[in-house]
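Sample A.
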Amino acid sequence: MSVQPIDLQVLISRMPDIGKDQAIQKDAAQIAQIAQGNQLVQKTEQQSHSVNESQQTDEVQRAKDRTKGGGKFRPGRGRKGKAHKEEAHEIFSDPEVGKNVDITG
């Protein structure tokens, strides 16, 4: 299929449109990057001007619990823990347990 003179005339008359389309495609990456940068700037400005809940609240609360000594029950610590530990030991102690070992299987 050969190119006819009429086809060349149409192509030549459309050259400025093709040039504009190629320039737009070339600049599209830069325009997209600029738009993304603007969105990032707007997002950071909004975050800096808004009141946000601190993410450190859990860590601060744990530190306060540790300094107060409150929080979870820890057996074996303090006077109450020792009494509870001895009581638990007395409940489970059996003189017959552990004396005989069955090795026959």
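Sample B.
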Amino acid sequence: MWRPSVRRKVSGRGAAALAAVLTLGASAATADVLVEEDGVDLIYAYCTACHSEMIVAQQGQTREGWDKLLVWMVDEQGMAEIDEPDRTEVLDYLEAHYNTDRPNFPRR
């Protein structure tokens, strides 16, 4: 279940999108696709503020690939930088659950 954390700092468009998600409520805004393990709260906060869960789940990237995507989103799409330790936790989660073999790719 999605739980907001007070230790996150999200600004700009990300903050507006996150506010919209919080206003709608997690069940209305997401499809419960993500693996409920350590780090999922950060994915909800940082990723689903702008993307659906399915967009995250379908990528299938290496850790390096996920890192490059985060850099691209900051540099080219105006995403706020994810500060440590959250950035490492986000990459740990994505690497573990949505890597190149995509063990948790939703089969719908």
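B remarks: The CA atoms of residues 73 and 79 lie 6 Å apart. The two ends are 21 Å apart (CA to CA).
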